[in-house]
């Protein structure tokens, strides 16, 4: 049998955006993924469906599996011709026992490759604004482990010796021995007033940090319940923390926000919320799929040149219409001279991606306003209009246009299905901790939420969220369903929702 290969992959400090492109590609390629406790769960979603996932995590005082067994797992799968991704938090060769695993692979003549990752100290410093080197304060860095030598009940390194030079000390796995570590550093010559920053869960939405001094940090961490995983940064450069820390100062930092869109479409809203510091929980209450009926497509596109107007009421309509369009026509010029009307700015942006210009957009971004304003914009009597819709769109737009004596055809290009979220992994997190905000972007999402919320077993003490609507139509559905509309986007857009949430928690 052909021998496989093992990739030792640095999974970084937690934020998936800090992985290298090479690491991402290897995760997608792997037949077997062997991963640690500190690996972000979202990375598991990058695997191909048939990938075998093997958890070998270790926590302080609790090892799911021994190091020797981990090495045997790697060798076993590689010898069976598998591509193995050994996913390790941070960097494989910085306090990650990667060297031991590589040595075992070399002894068994297994091919391997090492993919470096962003180690925790670099990430913790960057995300708290601490320059680990500075020409005025520190010209060197030491990465140290606070983990004890369990056989001899002593430190693996002498902190006393590392207190003699002007440098920045980055201490891993030191929270359980913080008082002993700081005592050794002071006895070795470091001033008791030397600044110290402790960063827990660096780069993640739950990151928190503490600025203190060598003499006080152990007591203050105990009072505020700081624990692993944390990095301890000791040295004069740490005093930049107050001025240059940025991650925890973002406007929605520490806020948990539920995004309820279709998974394929949640990314934009999630990205914008995460960019301003929010922790996002994605609950896919609906699923949107392309509707591709060949007979309907043929009927529409064979008469396409006869239409005067084409109306798009959503980004979904634009997206799936052009999927069908380009299966029939190979050239955008086949679109012809149709005038284009859209319901709002987001839909207009979607049209612009095809280098097409929108001819009409209403002042108020909803279907009813589009119909009313288009009728006032020009006489549509006897004009042929094609309305692009989904299976759950309201018929009021079509009715208003037909009442104005237009000839209207509807072209359904997508379907919206209500999804069951009871067993979805994110539901557990929502039920346990709650959230600050739940977002609603369509009446279908409102319907799905109301149908399922009664079945959710929300734990006592979970945060009760407020509700945010994307616009009037969704708000109307929320009120009818008994959901209070506490926030509403003024611009009826994703950007408007983000702005409304920011203003709620950071009023000017």
Structural class comes to: alpha/beta
Can you summarize the main beta sheet?
5 strands, parallel
Q: What is the CATH domain class of the largest domain?
A: Alpha Beta
Strand order of the largest sheet: 3-2-6-1-7
Distance between the termini: 67 Å
Report helical residue fraction: 25-40%
Gross geometry: elongated
- Our estimate of the beta-strand percent is 15-25%
Radius of gyration, in Å, reads 29 Å
Question: How would you explain this protein's 3D organization?
Answer:
The chain folds into four domains: 5-118, Cobalt-precorrin-4 Transmethylase, domain 1; 122-248, 2-Layer Sandwich (Methyltransferase, Cobalt-precorrin-4 Transmethylase, Domain 2), CATH 3.30.950; 256-285 and 421-505, Rossmann fold, CATH 3.40.50; 289-418, Rossmann fold (3-Layer(aba) Sandwich), CATH 3.40.50.10090. It is 32% helix and 22% strand. The protein contains 17 helices and 24 strands. The strands form six sheets. A five-stranded parallel beta sheet has the order 3-2-6-1-7, with helices on both faces.
Summary tags:
508 residues, alpha/beta, Cobalt-precorrin-4 Transmethylase, domain 1, Methyltransferase, Cobalt-precorrin-4 Transmethylase, Domain 2, Rossmann fold, 4 domains, 5-stranded parallel sheet, 5-stranded mixed sheet, 17 helices, 32% helix, elongated
